Structures are given as C-alpha cells and as structure tokens.
Amino acid sequence: MLPTIVPALLVGVVASLVLVGVGTAAGELQDVLWQDVPDALGIGGYSVPWMFVMLVATGIAVGLVVWKVPGHAGPDPATTGLDAPVLPPAVLPGLLLATALMLAGGPSLGPENPIIAVNVSLAVRVGLRAFPRTRERAWVALAEAGTIGALFGTPVAAALVISEALAGQRVKGRLWDSLFAPLAAAGAGALTVSLVSEPSFDLHLPPFGRPGWSDLLASLVVASAGALLGLCAVYAFPFVHGAFARLRHPMLMLPAGGVVLGALAALGGHLTLFKGLDEIAVLARDPDGWSAGEFATMTVVKLAALLVAASCGFRGGRIFPAVFVGTALGLCAHALVPGVHPAIGVSAGVLGVLLAITRQGWVSLFVAAVLVASPSVLTLLCIASLPAWLLVTGRPHMQLRADGTAVR
C-alpha cells in the first residue's frame, strides 16, 4: 500500500484544483451575469424578465457547446451518476465549459457528476501512462474519492461512498486495505479545498438539545415525506426526459429547458436558482422568515427545476439541488407545526429527499447530519432512515439507461 500514497495524494490535489477552478470561474461569470450586467442596464438582477432571459440564454449557450464543441460535452447527463465513465480527452474541455456555463447561468444542478467524470478521465489517462501495469479501476477510485472529498470538504464522505460501493464485492475482511489509497486521495482533496476556499456545510440553525419522543416522530414523518416527494421526481424523470428528447437537437432541447426553468424561477423566486448551497444558507439564517406556503412553493419549484434541468441536457449533478429541496421541505414542516425543531425538519427532509434522488444511504445520512452538526440529531436520523429506505428501495433510480428506461 505504501507505493500508492504519492499517486493518491497527487490525484486528490489535482481533483480538488479542477473543482475549485471550475467553481471559481463559474462564480466570476455569475457575478458578471447576475450583478454587473443588470446593474449596467439599470434593471434588477433577479427581476422576472432578467431571470427568464438568463435561463434561456444559458440554454442557448450550453446548447451551442453540446452541438458544436468536439465531444459534444460528453454523454447524456441523464444516463450518468457519481460512478462516472472514462471519457476521451477531446470530450473534457467541452464538458468543463458546459458545466461552468450551467453553474453561472442558474439551472438547478450541481457540479459533482461532470467534475467527477473529468477527474476520473484525467486520472485514468495519466495514471495508466505513468504506471502501465496498474488497473484502471484503481485510478477511477482515486479520482472519485479525491473529488468527493473536495466537494464536501472532508474525506469521510468519500470513505462512505466507496465503502458502500465495496459492499457488493468480496473484499474478504480487507475493507481498510481497499480504502487506504482512496482515503488518502480524499484527504488530500478535502485539505486542498479547505486551504483554498474554507467550505462549510453547517447551516448554524438554532441549537438542538436533548431529543424527545416528539422529535423522533417528526423525523420519521418528515424523512418519509421527503422520500415520497423525491420519488415523484424519480418516477417523472423518464417521461420528462423523453419529452425533451423528442426535440432531438441540443439547440432545441436546452433552450426549451431554459424557457421552462425561467417560468419556474418566476414562480419560485431567485432562491430556487443555481445549485442551492448558498441559497439554503439564506433560508437557514431566518427559519421563520417565510410562510409555510412560501416554503412549500420553493420546495415544489426547486424539485421541478431539478427535474427539468436534469432532463433537457444541462451538464450537472443532482445532490446539491436535492439538499435545497429537503431544506425547504423541513422548514415548511417547521412553519406548519412550530413544535418541529428547524434542525430536525431540515436534516430529516434532506435525508428523505437524498435517499430517493441518489439512492446513496451513507451519503444521504452524512449530508443530512453535517448540515446541523448535532450528535443527537444523528441518532434520530439513523432511525428515520429506516422507513424512508423502505419507501425507496427497489424503486427506479433517477438515472436512465441509453434506451431511456430507468435504472433499477
């Protein structure tokens, strides 16, 4: 295992720098598009007309990349997940460009799937050239772990994802041997991002004390409701994707998706734009600042925006917008029943929605727990995950095969 340390650390650092580079470029472009340009024009950056114009323009820009740039920005994103394919080098520039444009333009997707695909492809190509006797799967695991560690700012998330993937394999008591190099890559990725951008997922919700029976009941109900809500999007996914696929051309599919997303933004407001992490921090700063109806509207609109963006061809992942959906759902529960503590509502809502959308049990528990940073909430989440998992297990995934049918 010792010879794997240096390659693992290098892969983790490079994977995190790719993520930070794309995120930084997208952030700078977002500031120009949503602040500088509307200010220069004397209009509101988040006015309904500007949101509509920007989302349609983003659809056109990404459509041009998918149509004209070599490699067409990779495969249909509806067919990909965290377990990324190894792509030819010619595909990667277009995929990075399409991802940056999407992140800056406002569609409700995160960077995780395309950035993992880019890092996996780079690691496999360079790694096999430098060490031709190594296995491709080893470089894939390093790149995935490094990127996931960077995405969440901790190697724990990567360890959980990889251990879940290894659960179906015969590791014969050697789980930690298998995790050794990926954990090193994830640690390097997380540390690099922490030094560069200091990420934090803690929403700083009102502190939660000792759990009671009412808290257990609330977590069970909200997590199950989140799972059922997420399944609505999962079951609708093949049909919405099929509707956009009938347009047959990216310069029709993506602008049409931008039109629908613009209409949804007009309904849900600017907080339902983008990947959602900055926006959930806004919600968490004032859990009582919106009515139950407003939280419900944001929940449904964001879920619909995630569904449309993932169906029409925008390159991006589904985890971060799903976190917004769960957060808004949990705060809606708190607004309806003030006895539901915001920390319980948010964490349980995120848990249920992520279980349905990702079908990644450990990642769902991890993300839900780090949002509130409370050990007592984690106990409730472990119990609440049981009925939620019974609702989602065996159901279709929010990922399609090449023929348009849902993965199971």
TrEMBL record:
InterPro entries: Cl-channel_core (IPR014743), ClC (IPR001807), ClC-type_chloride_channel (IPR050368). The chain crosses the membrane at residues 43-66, 86-104, 138-163, 175-196, 216-240, 252-273, 293-312, 319-337, 343-358, 365-390. Its main location: membrane. Keywords: Membrane, Transmembrane, Transmembrane helix. CDD domains: Voltage_gated_ClC. It is a multi-pass membrane protein. One of its GO terms (cellular component) is plasma membrane. One of its GO terms (molecular function) is chloride transmembrane transporter activity. It is found in: Membrane. Pfam families: Voltage_CLC. PANTHER family: CHLORIDE CHANNEL PROTEIN CLC-E, ION-TRANSPORT PROTEIN YFEO-RELATED. This is Ion channel protein. It comes from Streptomyces caelestis. The lineage of its organism: Bacteria, Bacillati, Actinomycetota, Actinomycetes, Kitasatosporales.
